[in-house]
Amino acid sequence: MAMQVYLTGATGFVGTYVLRALRAAGYRVRCLVRRPDRRMPFEDEGVEKVAGDLLRPETFEGTLEGCEAVVHLVGIIQEKPRQGITFDAVHRLGTLHVVEAARQAGVSRFIHMSANGARPHGATAYQTSKWQAEEVVRKAGFTHWVIFRPSIIFGDPGQAPLEFVTHLARTLVKPFPVLPVFGDGEYALQPVAVESVAAAFVQALTHAQACGQTYCVAGPQPLSYKAVLDVIAQALFGRTKPKLHVPLSLVRPLVHTLGRTGLLPITPEQLTMLLEGNTCDPKAFYHDFDVPQTPFTPDTVAYVRRYV
């Protein structure tokens, strides 16, 4: 009988792709969701839904019974403190709850989604909480665990929440005839295709060489933020747009005030990480996993035209 995999984050952008890839590989998948009565972007006869909230482990107690592996994807990019949704709560504590439930159920395999830039003393609480979640997984005693640290992930979002490219296209590239750029715009990003990420998660379930490894996951080539905007503009309009460089001395105070209220499409934490850059060396990832090295080009992001 096919392995039963417990999947968190199945209704999200990456989760939808991972779910499809798991089913294509023949795995049965049990998805932890808040609202099992709602139809997910992808379902078939091998997909089971169970209700639960990662922040309240009693709500999903016992739902991992019979599962041999966990794929844990849940994460946030913006906090909502009034609702109790913080980086620490979702990333560290939520992961701890899933890990504890997995151990109680006798699960031996755990594949975890972290983020590029995760480190003990990150520039943001996002990065630090991602590192702390990794540590929970590393110290849990699973016989087989793998951690992935993706850079910016791109791909057709379908019915899932919008991803990086469509967000930029809707909020910046399409509305403005001249694109505002923070500072010099030379800070680098290394977008990776969601299909490659999903394929690696599935392969990691049975990849002996990957056991106990933490992988940097990124596209084959770093691009400056300005170049990323140019690629999106070319995909939308067949041409680039002029840019207006806004000094960081003006940007930072504006984002730290309006960004926290939701009046700007970027938070202070996101600005800090954007300016820091988001690149890494993915050689080990592409060596150990059979996934395509998809470049970030107008052709590979042409899907954006359907969403703006």
Question: How would the blueprint of this fold be written?
Answer:
Blueprint (H helix, E strand, L loop, with lengths): L3 E5 L4 H12 L3 E6 L13 E5 L17 E4 L14 H18 L4 E5 L11 H14 L5 E7 L2 E2 L9 H10 L5 E4 L5 E2 L2 E2 H11 L8 E5 L5 E2 H13 L5 E4 L1 H11 L9 H9 L6 H6 L20
Parallel strand pairs: 1-2, 1-4, 2-3, 4-5, 5-6, 6-11, 7-10, 8-13
Antiparallel strand pairs: 9-12
How does this structure look, described?
- The protein has 308 residues and is α/β, with parallel strands linked by helices.
- 34% of the residues lie in helices and 17% in strands.
- It contains 9 helices and 13 strands.
- It has helices at residues 13-24, 87-104, 125-138, 164-173, 194-204, 225-237, 248-258, 268-276, 283-288; strands at 4-8, 28-33, 47-51, 69-72, 109-113, 144-150, 153-154, 179-182, 188-189, 192-193, 213-217, 223-224, 243-246.
- Strands 3-2-1-4-5-6-11 form a 7-stranded parallel sheet, with helices on both faces. Strands 7-10 form a two-stranded parallel ribbon. A two-stranded parallel ribbon has the order 8-13.
- The longest helix is centred in the N-terminal third of the chain and has 18 residues, at 87-104.
